[in-house]
Design brief:
Helices cover 38% and strands 27% of the residues. It is an alpha+beta fold. The chain has a four-stranded mixed beta sheet with strand order 2-1-3-4. Helix 1 links the parallel strand 1 and strand 2. Helix 1 crosses helix 3.
């Protein structure tokens, strides 16, 4: 089943770092996932997130306000 991943952030360096980490984990582990970058502040606010970046996996906010490690992302996606 395809994981639905959303990365919430306005494009700041931390948001870009999180996107890179998530993409690396997905490609290195052949995980079936779709990634959507959400940069619209109104869309981000719908998730009730005040600190970015935030990682949403299958509709659940899993990480917010920091860049996760590759290991942490792998655990969340498995």
């Amino acid at each position: 089943m395809t994981k639905e991943i959303k990365i919430l952030g306005t494009g700041c360096p931390k948001c870009q770092s999180m996107t890179g980490v998530v993409k690396e984990v997905i490609s290195e582990n052949n995980i079936d996932a779709s990634i959507e970058k959400v940069e619209d502040i109104m869309e981000i606010m719908k998730f009730n997130v005040m600190t970015t970046p935030a990682l949403v996996v299958d509709g659940v906010i899993t990480i917010k306000g920091r860049v996760p490690s590759k290991d942490e992302v792998l655990v969340l996606l498995n």
